[in-house]
Every structure is written in structure tokens, then in C-alpha cells.
Amino acid sequence: MSDAKMETVIDDQAQSGGPQSQAARQVEELRADVDTIDAAIVAMMAERFRVTHRIGLLKAQAGFASADMHRESAQIAALRDKADDYGLDPDLAEAYLHLVADAAKRDHERLASQANSR
Ligand SMILES: O=C(O)C(=O)C[C@]1(C(=O)O)C=C[C@@H](O)C=C1
């Protein structure tokens, strides 16, 4: 256990028939759950992006700035609390919010520059 490995290809281990193949097969089963969860997260992110795109269209039409850091502070505080409730590292929830809000703002900037060039 003490040798520091850089990578273990679990698929190879599962087929090896060696002493670690049962653990490797259990990892593979859990990976199916990970894939299902990741697909759901991507679907929800796409839905979120469609909603923020609509916000961006309204902001561009009204001449509002893409960013609203007051709103983002409230979102971060709420998500950090929620993460705590679920036993998730609040830093991870905050990193998620930055990721999606930054993407939304880039989209809003594009929409604003399109509106300005008309
Ligand atoms: O709620 C807004 O005003 C948005 O533009 C959406 C959003 C977000 O992605 O949640 C993005 C940018 C703002 O700074 C705040 C929030």
C-alpha cells in the first residue's frame, strides 16, 4: 500500500482475475452511478443556461450590465448553507456557482455586444 501509484486503470484490474479484481468490479458498479449523476448534472446545467440566456436577452434589451454581484453574493451564501446541510464541502458549491455564473456572464456579454452592433 505504501508505493505511490500515479494511476490504476480499473478496467484492466477487473479483468485480471487477481486478488484485487473484486474491488475493481465494485468500483465499476459505482461508476455506473457516477455516470448517471453526471448526465443529470449536465442536463440541469443546460436547463440553467437556457434560463440565464433568457435573463441575458432581457438585460441586453434593457441596457443592464451582465453582472450583479449583489445577487451572486446571495446565491453563494445560500448554496454554501445548502452544501452544509447535505454534508458537502461549501467551497465546492461556491466553485460550482462561479463556474456557471461566469459562463452566464460571458453569454450575456456576447448578447449585449450583438444588441449594440444592431
Ligand atoms: O440573475 C442574474 O441577474 C443573472 O444574470 C444570472 C446570474 C447566474 O448565473 O445566476 C449570472 C450573472 C449575475 O452576476 C448573477 C446571476
From TrEMBL:
Residues 21-112 form the Chorismate mutase domain. The keyword Transcription regulation does not apply. Pfam families: CM_2. PROSITE patterns: CHORISMATE_MUT_2 (PS51168). The keyword Plastid does not apply. Gene3D superfamilies: Chorismate mutase (1.20.59.10). Transmembrane segments: none annotated. InterPro entries: Chorismate_II_sf (IPR036263), Chorismate_mutase-related (IPR051331), CM_dom_sf (IPR036979), CM_II_prokaryot (IPR002701). Residues 1-28 are annotated as: Disordered. It comes from the Bacteria. Keywords: Isomerase. Residues 13-25 have a biased composition (Low complexity). PANTHER family: CHORISMATE MUTASE. This is Chorismate mutase. It comes from Bifidobacterium choladohabitans. The lineage of its organism: Bacteria, Bacillati, Actinomycetota, Actinomycetes, Bifidobacteriales.
